[in-house]
UniProtKB/TrEMBL annotation:
This is Carboxymuconolactone decarboxylase. InterPro entries: AhpD-like. It comes from the Bacteria.
Length: 182
């Protein structure tokens, strides 16, 4: 059970409120994880800047969701797995690929498999990739700059995953059907 408050715009510290407003506009709601993050204006403001850059990068939204879902599974964050499962399906990932990621397997789609494998490997090896790890990613049609861009997605995702694991926010009703346990 969480002892962290899930803030609303009205209850959040003043410096956290603009971010909560942005997230409400983006999602039509304030995700509970953001409500928990809002306790720390430093954290939520740092997160939103990175979050915005990640979504303005070279990856498609479906590719970003592949990365985010893989990170959530690898970091065993139940809230983030439920949330990113729903978003991945909304962004057009095949349900079989989503289920593969949730089961800690690579998706069938070659590019999504390369993204999922690279991000899982980055977490498991704590960033110590070898030439084969990078080579498999490049062979799937990505470039060296995108290896580094995966790190940005991983950083944003790690913030969310760790906040979820520390604060244990409840999973919102729209994502209840996507619950997951490590």
């Amino acid at each position: 059970m969480s002892t962290y408050r899930i803030h609303t715009i009205d209850s959040a510290p003043e410096q956290s409120r603009p971010v909560l407003r942005e997230l409400q506009q983006a999602f039509g709601m304030i995700p509970n994880i953001a409500g928990a993050m809002a306790e720390s204006p430093v954290l939520i403001n740092g997160f939103i800047g990175l979050f915005q850059r990640v979504h303005a990068g070279t990856f498609t939204e479906a590719q970003i969701q592949t990365l985010l879902l893989t990170n959530a599974v690898t970091n065993a964050c139940s809230w983030a797995v439920a949330f990113h499962t729903a978003l991945a399906l909304k962004e057009g990932l095949h349900s079989a690929d989503v289920e593969a990621i949730r089961d800690d397997r690579a998706p069938e789609d070659r590019k999504h498999a390369a993204l999922s494998t690279l991000t899982r490997t980055l977490i498991e090896k704590r960033g110590h990739l070898d030439d084969r790890d990078v080579g498999r990613f490049l062979e799937a049609g990505f470039n060296q700059a995108q290896v580094l861009e995966v790190l940005a997605v991983l950083a944003a995702s790690t913030i969310t995953n760790y906040v979820g694991n520390v604060t244990k926010p409840p999973v919102e009703a729209p994502f209840q059907a996507r619950l997951w346990k490590a």
